[in-house]
Specification:
Elements: H1 3-16, E1 23-26, E2 39-44, E3 62-68, E4 71-76, H2 82-85, H3 92-100, E5 105-114, E6 124-131, H4 157-169, E7 175-181, H5 190-199, E8 203-205, H6 209-217, E9 221-231, H7 242-267
Parallel strand pairs: 1-4, 1-5, 5-9, 6-7, 7-8
Antiparallel strand pairs: 2-3, 3-4, 5-8, 6-9
Helix pairs in contact: 1-3, 4-7
The protein binds hypoxanthine.
Hypoxanthine binds next to strand 5, strand 8 and strand 9.
């Protein structure tokens, strides 16, 4: 773990207490408000030296440590993306800190475009796997043998079963599917969408994959849920824009929040 992660961990424990965190939640576009519902201590990213800027509108760039449904969590109200700074490992320091705080689990959320007619705007999808369509990797430059991270079952089967049970228990529809990481920040072309659909992707977005690779590298179990904010390029007449993403995210976000809360209350 880096020296900076150790310093930040001490700073965060000084503010929020020593009790170990169980799980980390990373909130995507239009989901940042969930951070505000945690009963705990909030620290703006700008007070955490070295934390990435996470400057995309619709995010809520603060770390909140506290209780959500009886589980001590670290909620990252916003993430930094590769497209903001050209660094695939832009979320490494926050995830190192999460590990240092005692967590064994990371749950990422994101907004995504859908390639499946049965998964329209407003639905949610639990990631079963991913396709790294960007070809980038956050572990490039890592020198230890730990860089050779196996990615089978990267989306932890037990966590996925727990999220599925939470969806069933709350009567919330949740699809299962494969997420393709496209670097952004421009959206995909219709030809690119046709290509990744043929390759086996169900949804597309600009985040999460590097975080899941880093989480597995750090020994964290990982899971992720997408909120579908639009049909992917060329699949409908719906607008594709960041404004549209932010406007549509709350529909899926309400479902996602219900599932996360139920999942955590079962964990407690
Ligand atoms: N493509 C990539 N990222 C996205 C999309 C999309 O269609 N919708 C929301 N985030």
């Amino acid at each position: 773990m880096s020296k900076n992660a150790d310093l930040l961990t001490a700073q965060i424990k000084g503010a929020a207490g020593d009790a170990p965190v169980r799980a980390g939640l990373i909130l995507g576009s239009g989901l940042g408000h969930i951070a505000d519902s945690v009963d705990g201590v909030a620290i703006p990213y700008e007070d955490l030296a070295g934390f990435p800027h996470a400057g995309v509108s619709g995010h809520n760039p603060k770390l909140v440590i506290g209780d959500l449904e009886g589980v001590r969590v670290a909620v990252f109200g916003g993430r930094s993306h590769y497209y903001e700074n050209g660094k695939p490992d832009t979320m490494r320091l926050p995830l190192e800190v999460l590990r240092n705080l005692g967590a064994d689990t990371m749950i990422a959320t994101n907004a995504a475009g859908s390639m499946r007619p049965d998964m329209p705007t407003g639905s949610i999808m639990c990631l079963s796997d991913h396709i790294n369509f960007s070809g980038l990797n956050p572990l490039i430059g890592e020198t230890t043998d730990a860089r050779f991270v196996p990615m089978k079952d990267a989306y932890d089967p037990d966590l996925r079963a727990g999220l599925r049970a939470a969806a069933d228990a709350t009567g919330t529809d949740m699809a299962d599917g494969v997420y393709a990481w496209y670097s952004g920040p421009s959206f995909e072309t219709p030809a690119e969408i046709r290509a990744i659909r043929m390759l086996g992707a169900d949804a597309v977005g600009m985040s999460t994959v590097p975080e899941v690779i880093l989480a597995r590298f750090l020994g964290l179990k990982a899971a992720a849920i997408s909120t579908i904010t639009n049909m992917a390029a060329g699949l409908s007449d719906e607008a594709i824009s960041h404004e549209h993403t932010k406007a549509m995210a709350p529909i899926g976000a309400a479902k996602l929040e219900a599932i996360l809360r139920r999942f955590l209350s079962e964990l407690a």
